[in-house]
Design goal:
The complex is a heterodimer of chains A (about 300) and B (about 240). With about 300 residues, chain A is of the alpha/beta class. Helix content of chain A is about 35%, strand content about 25%. Chain B has one domain (about 1-240). Chain B is about 75% helix and about 0% strand. In chain B, helix 3 runs antiparallel to helix 9. Chain B is globular. The chains are: A alpha/beta (about 300), B mainly alpha (about 240). The interface of A and B includes residues 82, 98 and 146 of A.
Chain lengths: ~300, ~240
């Protein structure tokens, strides 16, 4: 049985359709990343799964239960990290973890958890005086203290420094290894690519792509060759020589609209070598996840401004 | 049960850790009691010759109001704003246990307040009379009433607005609550309005039960207290937004 199964989920606020027919599946011991621009419906989706948000239509199952009807039973088995806040401002990490531990029948040891998330050094510092990254790591620890089987993390690494992000990512990888199902939302494409077993890209409340990171980047393969060279090279001459359209997409960044075959790459490098032009970088074949994301959500950027 | 004990202890620790809360719930009542007992500027009701005899029941009423309405309301407002209440909704704690913990923490603070204030009053020469049992009943009813008012504000307004409104209401109810200034010295119309408020009803009930038939509110005070004790929590329950 999947840990999370969502079919045709819609969430409306009055006339605004925040989530419009979303399907999701996540297995135990896997990480699902929900990716999308601001306002795409990521948080509304997660909050419908957490039982906070009433849904307008669709079916939602978490550990085989409906979060809207079996909220109390799910609170014992599900861990939640809100996008912000959630902790008494005057309470330090140790005190907060001990308090939350008292809610659960079989909690983790707060002292061990403090070490795991790297907060042992600020264990007594009140929440309001912790840095943004420390607050996020405490929220993560609070989501885990009850030994959950499913964990919802809403932008767990937003506003977190690099060291903090690494701690959070290694904790998430550890959860997967222990068989926990993790659903996270993120803005960081490279985070989704590195952490997630499955990535779902949402835009304006709809799923626009769903697959493993490898599947998503291969789906867009065969579209172009990108390379870096000095600005202002003769793109018309290059295009004529290779017989494909060439454009300077950014200063010193060029794109050949052709299949990234070895022959095309050889012709390109030969042309550059004849003119003694340096090659700064070369990208042929698969798209980066960022390219997939931008291509699929481009409409939102145009319309949203 | 373990969660209730831990949550109550946490609520109590957080309350005692907030300097402004201790100022409001202990320092100001003690300060008013000592100042107006020693500096004889207050008008006194007929039949009372020493200020401490009149002040002690009224200051006890003020203490209850400061804890159950102001301190609880402001703290809960900020917990809502910081999404603490929302986050707790995703734990097995449950709202009934959370409310029970908050109630127990408020009662515990009131026990501390009564202990300190009665000790200070005794040192100032207060001689209690009457029967403490109705006084306890009045305090419990008033706690429910004031908590209902505080939580209604906390559940509907932004935390900063609750902070200002609760403190403003505290000052108004202090002035027209028969706590420091006798109701008999207020203009007639204002006194009538004041008697319908839980502050004057509580101080009236405490005056009559703790000074053995002193200036009190009679049966009317108990009716007013009971009505607020039922109505205000109901209003809070129906209007409260958890996030």
């Amino acid at each position: 049985m999947p840990a999370i199964e969502v079919k045709g989920l819609s969430v409306r606020y009055g006339d605004l359709v925040a989530v419009d027919g979303v399907d999701l599946v996540a297995e135990p011991g896997s990480v699902l990343a929900l990716l999308g621009p601001n306002g795409a419906g990521k948080t509304s989706t997660v909050e419908a799964l957490e039982g906070y948000r009433p849904r307008s239509s669709g079916t939602v199952s978490v550990l085989g239960l409906d979060p809207a009807r079996h909220h109390a039973a799910l609170t014992r088995r599900v861990g939640v990290m809100l996008q912000r806040g959630g902790v008494y401002p005057g309470m330090g990490p140790r005190e907060a973890l001990r308090l939350f531990a008292s809610y659960y029948p079989r909690p983790l040891d707060p002292a061990v958890l403090l070490e795991t998330v790297g907060l042992a050094g600020v264990a007594a510092t009140p929440w309001r005086r912790l840095s943004g990254g420390e607050q996020q790591r405490l929220s993560l620890a609070l989501a885990l203290v009850g030994r959950p089987e499913v964990v919802f993390l809403d932008e767990p690494t937003a506003g977190v420094d690099i060291q903090g992000r690494q701690v959070i990512r290694s904790v998430i990888a550890g959860l997967r290894d222990e068989g926990v199902c993790v659903l996270l939302t993120t803005h960081y494409l490279e985070e989704a690519e590195r952490l997630a077993d499955r990535v779902v890209i949402v835009d304006r409340g709809r799923v626009v792509a769903d697959g493993t990171p490898a599947e998503l980047v291969t789906a867009g393969a065969g579209r172009s060759i990108r390379f870096g060279a000095p600005t202002g090279i003769d793109v018309a001459g290059l295009g004529a020589s290779l017989g494909v359209p060439v454009s300077e997409v950014g200063p010193g960044e060029y794109e050949l609209r052709c299949a990234p075959t070895p022959a095309a790459v050889a012709a390109l490098t030969a042309w550059l070598a004849e003119r003694d032009l340096p090659l700064a970088d070369l990208h042929a074949g698969r798209e980066r996840l960022e390219d997939v994301f931008l291509r699929l959500t481009a409409g939102a950027a145009d319309g949203g401004g | 049960m373990r969660a209730l004990v831990a949550q109550t202890a946490a609520e109590l620790r957080l309350t005692l850790r907030r300097g402004e809360s201790v100022l409001l719930t202990l320092a100001i009542p003690v300060g008013l009691l000592v100042f107006f007992s020693e500096v004889r500027v207050l008008p006194l009701p007929d039949g009372v010759d020493r200020p401490v005899q009149y002040l002690t029941p009224g200051i006890l009423a003020l203490a209850v109001m400061s804890t159950a309405m102001v301190s609880l309301g402001i703290a809960t407002g900020f917990e809502r704003q910081y999404l603490v209440l929302k986050r707790l909704g995703a734990t097995p704690l449950g709202r009934p246990t959370l409310l029970a913990a908050k109630t127990l923490a408020v009662l515990a603070v009131e026990v501390i307040q009564v202990g300190v204030l009665v000790g200070v009053a005794a040192a100032l020469g207060w001689v209690p009379g009457g029967d403490p049992a109705p006084a306890v009943g009045a305090v419990l009813l008033a706690t429910a009433a004031f908590a209902g008012i505080g939580l209604t504000m906390a559940g509907a307004l932004r935390a900063e607005v609750t902070l200002a409104a609760a403190n403003g209401l505290y000052l108004i109810l202090l002035l027209v609550g028969g706590m420091v200034f006798p109701l008999s010295h207020l203009p007639g119309g204002l006194a009538d309005v004041a008697r319908a408020l839980p502050s004057a009803a509580l101080s009236g009930a405490l005056h009559s039960s703790l000074t053995g038939g002193g200036p009190g509110g009679g049966v009317a005070a108990w009716v007013v207290l009971a009505a607020w004790a039922i109505g205000a929590p109901l209003l809070a329950a129906f209007s409260f937004r958890w996030e």
